[in-house]
Amino acid sequence: MSDTSFDYIVIGAGTAGALMANRLSADPGKRVLLIEAGRKDDYHWIHIPVGYLYCIGNPRTDWLYSTEAEPGLNGRSLRYPRGKTLGGSSSINGMIYMRGQARDYDGWAAITGDDTWRWQNVLPAFKQHEDHYLGANEMHGAGGEWRVEKQRLRWDILDAFSQAAQQAGIPHSSDFNTGDNEGIGYFQVNQKGGLRWNSAKAFLRPICYGRPNFELWTGAQVMRLLFERQPDGGQRCSGAEVWNGSERLTVRAAGEVILCAGAIGSPQILQLSGIGPADTLRAQGIAPVADLPGVGANLQDHLQIRAVFKIEGAPTLNVLASSWWGKARIGLQYLASRSGPMSMAPSQLGAFTRSSPDRPWPNLQYHVQPLSLDAFGDPLHAFPAFTASVCNLNPTSRGTVRLRSANFQDAPAIAPRYLSTEEDRQVAAESLRLTRRIAAQPALAPYKPQEFKPGVQYQSDEELARLAGDIATTIFHPVGTAAMGADGDPMAVLDSRLRVRDGRGGLIAGLRVVDASAMPTITSGNTNSPTLMLAEKAAAWVRADARAAETATVKTSHIPETIA
């Protein structure tokens, strides 16, 4: 850590930060520093797919956040995992490759007033880094860094659920990533040969490690960003203060600082640095640099409602992993072929459908699993069962991320405000009814499904909505807390190129936010790969802006002096 001056400083080596560092360090004339608060991704459970069970809730790999007590969840607080290691949340997530729906990005274009975010304009960025197992075609790329594969197992009970969903009117889908994800099918996953494929493997190793202009700091937490006044009176982000565990370091960026700390970390760092709601900052003793009320606002997340059904006549993980011998067989299968339950993503079968026929597009996502438990981290049930978790893809509830104190080591207060709107409560009730309708179809009848959770005694909208508050949990997709938006929108933190606004109609020079916090609305599906797409576009803009600035400097330096 002896070098402290760089062209670019990327804060956060997660999904977006790893790609940004890769793309920016491809220019050998630019020195790039990547800063990660966590450790290297050399923990073996990161790479074994089922290892997410040992990574979430583990201080080795997780920030260990929790939400505030949620009124919509009847006073419950939820565990709120975020990756704290190289690869960030791509090292502990469900590995599901999902882009969302075309209308998500068309909506971003409408919100920002910038057509660069339309589906047809973001699709090339998805394909640019993709390495799809079927090869390149109109919708998919091949040869990129981000590996997409089929899952390496199937289950009879999941096949039966798929058939039942089709009997209930949900069509089969072989590809959820064409812009219209309606249907049911097995998820494609970010794995390679039965191992997790995180962003550190994809974008940092080995290529970045071999570049002399690239430097990586791990175990280094950003305390705050630094600013300097420009001749025109505006502010420029000039670097950051970093705590490496024993001392405070100051690093400087000649070009840009790119904040990629995620939907929780990025608004926290911005607020610690004086960028956020001015009154809230002053209350913490922080002098405002830019009064931006949207920093830490607009928090959106997918809340899943887990319905559990006991079954008969089919193996599930509850049974297969119920003994030491069963666990040994599962381990041997993985060692022999990198397949079987240890290669499982947390959810294998997925579906996208409508909570009611009058919905204009699919507004629900199912994650279906051949297992059941009371809560994440608890033991599997002693009886065979499957879980059908369903979430509202487009929640209207909005929450906040706010500082608890001016101490950078204190976790922020996270308040998602789940189920705080009547629409979200109605969709919750409708989704539970749809789950019951699928379970009642002939394809599942041989397995005699019995609703164990929530229980058939709950029937009315009011009962089901209250019940959702009792059993629902996050599916770990926070977005929107430093959202981009149109000029003149007082809640827009970023412009459409992810540059930070100054609260006075201009921009803070040299500062962007490139992660899921920049999304103005949540995508209709898992959020990891949309974050990569966002970073792909941002990296191109950073490099283009640098080239434009260099060209302008050269032209200015060749202007002849005026002869009197």
UniProtKB/TrEMBL annotation:
SUPFAM superfamilies: FAD-linked reductases, C-terminal domain, FAD/NAD(P)-binding domain. The keyword Repeat does not apply. Signal peptide: none annotated. InterPro entries: FAD/NAD-bd_sf (IPR036188), GMC_OxRdtase (IPR012132), GMC_OxRdtase_N (IPR000172), GMC_OxRtase_C (IPR007867). Residues 83-106, 262-276 form the Glucose-methanol-choline oxidoreductase N-terminal domain. The keyword Membrane does not apply. GO terms for molecular function: flavin adenine dinucleotide binding; oxidoreductase activity, acting on CH-OH group of donors. Pfam families: GMC_oxred_C (PF05199), GMC_oxred_N (PF00732). FAD binds at residue 222. Keywords: FAD, Flavoprotein. PROSITE patterns: GMC_OXRED_1, GMC_OXRED_2. This is Choline dehydrogenase. It comes from Xylophilus rhododendri.
